[in-house]
Amino acid sequence: MRIINTFELAVHGLKSKPSRTFLTLLGVAIGVAAVVIIASLGAGTQTLITDEISGLGADLVAVQPGGEPTSMADMANVLYSDSLTQDDIDAILKKKNVPHAVDATPFVLVPGNVTYYNESYVPQIYGTEVEVLSDMFDVYVEEGEFFGEGEIKEKAAVAVIGYKVNQELFGQVSGLGKRISINGKKFRVIGIYPKTGQKMFTDIDTLVIIPYTTAQTYLTGEDHFNEIWVRIDDSANARRTEQDIELTLRELHNLEENEDNDFVIRTPESIMEQVNTILLSLTIFLTAVVAVALVVGGIGIMNMMLVSVTERTREIGLRKAIGATDTDVLSQFLIEAMLLTFMGGAFGIVSGALISYGAGLLVLHFSSLNWTFQLPVAVSVGALVFSVVIGLVFGLYPARKASKKSPMEALRYE
Q: How far is CA 223 from the centre of its chain?
């Protein structure tokens, strides 16, 4: 019965100053909401990336030039590294070297823009084998056709373009059969993709695909590749294939035993592990930073409780005069602090969930990403418990100060 009365007194104390109570719990609510938003967006991003990478297929192994990047400067060096050439593809496709490799597709990144008379656009330009790329993304031309092995061998000046590229250059008219200019070189449009949007982090609508031999000969002037995709016979052989490719390329590149690889091999599984590790580390870091806001909110609670203790000195004296013990007074003010942080935490969870859900709707509306709203229950409950602990820790000193007041001095307080 005494606990119920103490709780009722604590509620009455908070209701007596509604504006102050609201502003104080708002500080806690903002901190908890930030934690929930970060955790929710992090979980949604992790699911999105995992789904996108899974869409590549478990039977693919990607080989990239350069060593494992450790900084942004290394990323640039990797992008323009010349360690992968046609000789590497030929070696990979030899059954004695990589027995589980079915085919290998090179990629050449072509920086620049495309023009058609006075119209100009900056798309994503790749030199590759268009049929393999289309099978990978499960998207096929709506008009025209793909180029094949014949065009690749002949270094033909042909291109397959995305929906937006067609719109930017030709408006509502089909560009099929017309000649566009890529960095000054004329290409005939032989295929147009339908409106597709994002596929595995690639915007199909902004793509221009040309034969990789043509890209190397007329646009980049280089004989190396920016990436090679190796398709294997069975996803169960991915790890074995990764090892076979590494041994083959190290031998072909004449690398000594103590030298690092001048290439990087990635499987969908290894990419997901790396992405998940990065996202988890980032989420933990941001959550720790936001937790500081909760500590600041706790300081605000302690300040509010100290002011409240001073204002209610006569009330404390009267309670003690009619029989309330130090423990009763201590409990009352501790319950006030914890109740305050509990309400702030609950309000923060609801607010954070609504904001995260709204952000997810905006992502779905303004992009073609398959975003899924997620609310990590464990993180939400943890944030709520942490906020209550903050109330307990920072409310202890004011509550103890209130419990130690002398009833005679408190009743004389003006």
A: 34
